[in-house]
Amino acid sequence: MRNLRVVVLGDELLTGAGDPKGLGWLGRVQARTPAGDDVAVFPLAKIGESTAQLLERWQTEALPRFSKDTENYLVLALSSQDILAQTTISRSRLNLASLLDDAIREGVQVFVVGPTPTGVKEYDSEVEELSAGFADVVKRRQLKYVDCFNPLKEHEGWLAEVSQHPRRLPGQVGYGLIAWLVLNRGWFEWLGMTEPQS
């Protein structure tokens, strides 16, 4: 039996905030992940976190949860907080690159989920640029990157939900969409598991 530790760093989307079922995207992904192995998932959410803060938290909160006796996996669920923090794209890229390089040196397998659209056009134009920058950094290291922005930016179900929430959070439909993207962009391959048949 394999012994896996999966640490997930992200913002409030990680908690399922706004989801009437309380599952969020991570709960839905876990429900589809095959049983049989010893898989411990550690969701570590923090609202309003920039990439600079994420880099620091990876070292203080994520790294101590890994062990030399386990297979260690890190999911980064990136937000668009750097825009609000007025962080330059180059600094955002550098922060992410530093985190990824640290994780690689520690022998940790990394999977990155990109930021989601808000439905506010002016802001989303910046989210699109940020997501593209993140994607480039991740792909240069031949790691998995899930683009959530482009598939969702014009999705009616997604936009309907985020437009109704005061903090632009999705509901049941939106979290299901993120989960679908994660599951269909290399999740099972990344974990070294066979995708279950529906």
TrEMBL record:
One Pfam family cited in the UniProt record for this chain: Lipase_GDSL_2
Gene3D superfamilies cross-referenced by the UniProt entry: SGNH hydrolase
Domain SGNH hydrolase-type esterase: 8-164
Name this protein carries in UniProt: Unannotated protein
